[in-house]
Write a structure and sequence with these properties.
With 133 residues, the protein is an alpha+beta fold. Helix content is 38%, strand content 22%.
Length: 133
């Protein structure tokens, strides 16, 4: 019975996650789906789940980034959980103490190399032990 409840919970979470991506309007939907694929391809230990009403990505169970929309600017972004460790000028801190965001213009191509470099840098915080897993 316990295993069945756990399985049901996983199915519900996955449905919320799928719904999040599918319920976005274009071009946001395409951007979020592309970002999801880019992030997941960076390491086999990365998983995607639905937490706090948004897609979160974890490395070996530790949340390291998420996808969301900037409320004022209406631009999609990747939020880097441990962004305080990053000095890149294109990452924005705003009023966050720990996280920084990387925003994307919906009218421009995604900067693939820049995204991959930031995701790898975020993963390396965990791999090197700077952030404990």
């Amino acid at each position: 019975m316990h295993v069945l409840r756990k399985l049901e919970k996983i199915i519900i979470i996955m449905n919320h996650l799928d719904d999040f991506y599918l319920n976005q309007e274009e071009p946001i939907k395409g951007i979020f789906l592309a970002l999801k694929e880019i992030i997941l391809k960076q390491d086999t230990s990365i998983t995607n789940s639905f937490k706090y009403g948004m897609p979160f990505f974890s490395y070996k169970g530790k949340m390291f980034c998420y996808l969301w929309m900037h409320k004022k600017l209406q631009q999609p972004y990747i939020g880097i959980v441990e962004g305080k460790h990053f000095e890149e000028a294109f990452l924005i801190q705003e009023n966050r103490s720990r996280m920084k965001i990387m925003m994307f213009d919906v009218h421009e191509d995604l900067p693939l190399e820049q995204i991959e470099a930031i995701i790898q840098k975020a993963i390396n915080l965990y791999k090197t032990g700077i952030v404990k897993i």
